[in-house]
Amino acid sequence: QVRLVESGGGLVQAGGSLRLSCAASGGTFTSYSMGWFRQAPGKEREFVGAITQSGHTYYADSLKGRFAISRDNAKNTVYLQMNSLNPEDTAVYYCAAGFSILPGSYSQKAYEYDYWGQGTQVTVSS
């Protein structure tokens, strides 16, 4: 099985930055499109961004310009760099791996991803 473990969450002041990491084990990391999602209390899981097997990135329109996704295949790790954070960014952030997503494509739909991490809490204070 593929296992994903997020880390790097925590408490940050508004305007600050955090970098989340998602370490993968099992499977073939380069075979997966990787996505980041977040979920705030009482809200549905929301697409943050994705990175394809070839390294192309995609972001939710509302987050584009503040967040950046990268992957290090040698380390089997995907990153989410978050800048200019505001309290509305407070949520549990999840990484996900999608094996069935078409090569060269990405998905904003949570149900199209095959494996999920446990999530890491990001809290942004005002």
Describe this entry's structure for a reader:
The protein has 126 residues and is mainly β. 0% of the residues lie in helices and 48% in strands. The chain has strands at residues 3-7, 10-13, 18-25, 33-39, 46-51, 57-59, 67-72, 77-82, 91-98, 115-116, 120-125. The strands form two sheets. Strands 2, 4, 5, 6, 9, 10 and 11 form a seven-stranded mixed sheet that branches. Strands 1-3-8-7 form a four-stranded antiparallel sheet, with no helix packed on it. The mean pLDDT is 93.
Task: State the main characteristics.
126 residues, mainly beta, 7-stranded mixed sheet, 4-stranded antiparallel sheet, 11 strands, 48% strand, globular
Write the element-wise H/E pattern from the N-terminal end onward. EEEEEEEEEEE
- Principal-axes geometry comes out as globular
Low-confidence stretches: none
- Average per-residue pLDDT, rounded, comes to 93
The strand count comes to: 11
Largest sheet: 7 strands, mixed
First-last Cα distance? 40 Å
Strand percent estimate: over 45%
Number of separate helices: 0
Radius of gyration: 13 Å
Helix content: under 10%
Structural class: mainly beta
Please render the helix and strand layout as text.
Layout: E1 3-7, E2 10-13, E3 18-25, E4 33-39, E5 46-51, E6 57-59, E7 67-72, E8 77-82, E9 91-98, E10 115-116, E11 120-125
Parallel strand pairs: 2-11
Antiparallel strand pairs: 1-3, 3-8, 4-5, 4-9, 5-6, 7-8, 9-10, 9-11
